[in-house]
Amino acid sequence: MWPRRSHGDSLIEGPTATSGPKGAAAATSSPPHTGRVWWAAAVAVALAADLASTAWATAHLSAGRGHQLLGGFVVLRLVANHGAAFGLGAGHETLVEVVEIAALAALAVLGRRQAPVVAVGLGAAFGGGLGNLVVRLLGPRGPLASPVVDWIHVAFYPATFNLADVAIRGGLLVAAAAVLARRRRAPVPGEDDAVPGEDGAVPAR
Prior knowledge:
This protein is mainly alpha-helical. It has helices at residues 20-28, 32-60, 93-111, 116-138, 163-185; strands spanning 67-69, 74-81, 148-154.
């Protein structure tokens, strides 16, 4: 005689209860606080790198021809950027700062709730944006008139930039690539619930 099971008994016991794509994803998912830790670490690194490099550039570089590296492929020179990327919004520093604060608030809300790779990307973007905002607010011309200090120019890129720009663009690219890769790996809904027939084939839906 087979032992009887009550309706409340599970038909799957032990480790096999978490088998399959959904169970594996649940077993390997990161703890909720992991994304916040990686986000905060990326923010700290990007912010420190930008502020330190800006201080160095301000002390050692000047406008004009600048220092040429790699045969002129890279040129280090100071450029005062009163706008956003590519000088957009120049002359409207207050508006640029308001937009930057709004973007930083969005990155702060989204970045800490993501998987580690996405959190690192959004954290780097947040740290770079925060670095630019700090320079604008604490610059010598005051919080509403100080420009961002750009100091890196490469031959194939039309604008002069700084490490904050690298962190912003690179971080957003990393986050976007991680999200797209995760979506491509996600199982098709209902695919793991199909019951194979007697010959082992899964019936078409």
